[in-house]
Each structure stands twice: as C-alpha cells, then as structure tokens.
Amino acid sequence: MSPTPRALERLIQEFTRLPGIGPKTAERLVYYLLKQPKEVLSAFAQSLEQAKDEVTTCAQCYRFSDQSPCSICADPRRDKTILCVVAESQNIPVIEKTSAFHGRYHVLGGLVSPLEGVTPDKLKVTELETRLKANGMKEVILALNPDLDGETTSLYLAKLIKPLGIKVTRLARGLPMGADLEYADEVTLENAITGRREVN
Ligand SMILES: [Zn+2]
How far apart are the CA of 153 and the centre of ligand 1, in A? Predict the structure, then answer.
C-alpha cells in the first residue's frame, strides 16, 4: 500500500503534466492546496473554467485574446507590412514590453520538433503562408527561442518565405543559446529586435 491517499496520488499525477513541474513540486503544490479552505479551491477551479470559456483565439494572429480580432490585429496604427512570428501566445507580452516592435504577430502554436513528432502541418504554417500572400508583407521577423527546435523552425520558415520575395530577419545574437524568450529581460530582447539580421 502506498502511504499517499489515492486521490492525492491522482492529483499529483495531474500536476506533473504541467510544463516545468516535476513530481516533488507537484507534491508540494498539492499539499499546499489541500490546506486551503474549500471556498478558495472552488474559486480557483472556477477561474480555470472561466479562463477556458472566455478566452478565445484571434482568428488573424492565433494568440489567446478576449476577442477576435485581438486588440493588436484590430489596431490600425500597427504596421501591416511587418510580421513577427512567435511560437506561443505568451511570447507576445514580453516583446510588447520592449516597445521596439510596431508590426503585427503570428503565433505558430509551437515549434517544429522532429524528436517530439511536431511537424509543420501541426502548426499554423499554412495560415502564415496565406497571410503573407495576402497583405503586401515586407518583412517577417522570426522571434523564436535560440535552441534546437527554434533553429529548425527558423530554417524551415526562412526557406518557405524567401521565395515569396519577403525579407526574413531573426533576432540578433544577444540571446544566449538555449534561452527562453519568455524569461529574457527587456533590454536584451529590445537589442535583439533592433539588431535583427536578415536570414541569408
Ligand atoms: Zn490577433
């Protein structure tokens, strides 16, 4: 018999499915939550459900948003001729904070990863091509993590986009290899955007 009650084991198992949460952390979170009053837990569960119900995906850039089109896609002051391609929705607030970018975004929904079986058809690549062909686009900035999957995806996309006669740039080398855009500090990221280089 396991010394941990079965319901707790199940919950710990659920938590380990979250990114960056190992068994030890999962256990700590579950025991912490159990000590909370039932109302707190109900409110927590409700917030989760509400977020899932109320948050939609922008039909233009595919980021999570309150409405579609999202506030960035609907803003006429944003440059339509320059598109910043990111892997996930959560990369956008980080780039927005730098104020170094005034174009629009496209969220891929992940990165090409042969090891994990993520092929381009599982990402918003066809949708990207459609946008690029429609809008008189001048430049695409590939703002992907400087790790193996980010590199693979950047190379794949550059090959796809360049024949369309659109300039393809990527973030400058200020970001250390293996870094995560989500945790990059604003100054480093701003330099990486303003110092972006054309992909040859
Ligand atoms: Zn949008």
Answer: 21
Query: What is the reported pLDDT for 70?
Result: 97
CA 110 – ligand 1 centroid, Å: 17
Render pLDDT for 71-86 as a digit per residue (tens, 0 to 9): 999 999 999 999 999 9
CA of 30 to the centre of ligand 1 (A): 36
pLDDT of residue 2: 67
pLDDT, mean of residues 133-160 = 91
Separation of 49 CA from ligand 1 center, angstroms?
Answer: 23
Query: All domains of the chain, ordered by start, with CATH?
Result: 6-54 (1.10.8.420), 78-198 (3.40.1360.10)
| DSSP secondary structure letters along 18-70 | STT--HHHHHHHHHHHHTS-HHHHHHHHHHHHHHHHH-EE-TTT--EESSSS-
**How many Å lie between the centroid of ligand 1 and the Cα of residue 106?**
8
